[in-house]
Amino acid sequence: MRSRLISSVLGAGALAVTALTAGVQGAQAAAPQPQLTHLSGVHAGRACTRTPAAGHASCFAKGLMNGKGRVPDAAAPLATALSPAQLRSAYNLGGGTTGGGRTVAIVDAYGYPNLERDLTIYRNYYGMPACTTANDCLKILDQNGGHNTPRTNLGWSQEQALDVDAVSATCPTCKILVIQTKTNSFANLGQGVITAAQQPGVVAISNSYGGGDLADSTYGSYYHHPGIAVTASTGDNGYQGASYPASSAYVTAVGGTTLHMSGTTRSSETAWSGAGSGCSAYNAAVAPSSFNTGCGKRAIADVSAAADPNYGGLSTYSPTSNKSSTWSQWGGTSESSPIIAAVYALAGGGYSNTTPYQHASSFWDITGGTNGSCPTTQWCQARSGWDGPTGLGTPNGTGAF
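The chain above was modelled as a monomer; its predicted structure follows.
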């Protein structure tokens, strides 16, 4: 069963945690301000800069940090963090074992020298099968498919930790490919996606980053890979308009929710106030007209999953420096994108971003919550059927994918 933490005390930049038990069965408005968490002394902070340079993307990971903007040290998983068993239970995924042999790729910028070590600690704690480079479950490549490790960037390393842990939690038997690009430019990240699509066994590619709305006529070739599910986070700034690559007509745009669990029972789920949504000014629509998105072109999101770093933030083992790592709680739509990529892998289907619209009844329809103010209600307000923050809803099994 999941760890129960009996004390959680903030010191000078550190979170002291005492565990009672360890071991888990292996199984266009201003953006809303981050809500203060229910844990005293910490708040949701960004791993990467909010506003990237032109032609570049920012990662969307948001984690619980102290007043100094650091992830506090924790001796064991936080009691408030979503465990793998809770995640799979919330979305009716069983043991997450149907994806065996299929590979989920993660594309991120920069290097993360302790990725394999940290992933091993995470998976061992939760009783998952080993996933290492030695047993061919884990592969780490540069953007061109080689082994030239890029320089390290802490924020992007934290993003990578969240991504690989989210895939592991959702599909423990999936293989994982991590593509680390030289920089966070769209040119380099896009090349990373192309490289990922060329690797044997890859059925899904997750992209937990974005910038402003961009045109597929310029960047779409990076993300157009028929037969492979390409997912992209919609962003953590609430209703702001479209973010690329989520606004591409070739991807599944993944929004976010606030998920409350009681043990392994899904108590409630609403639109997360930070989930990105909006309409692309450039790219073709994905949703059929019958879904009434209100957008003349591409509307985001298509689907969603847990993303609120406070309520539904994933238990993660992530770096605090180039050498050290700790148990932590991370969210943002950086959490939801790899979850959905892994659900695609579990489904074993045809991997098309139009498939979910053909099976809309196979989602948990999220009807409450908002991510800001907008001129067209469904762009920022959850409702029955499609809406901007949550799309069609969250997975209720794999039938929609």
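The radius of gyration is 19 Å.
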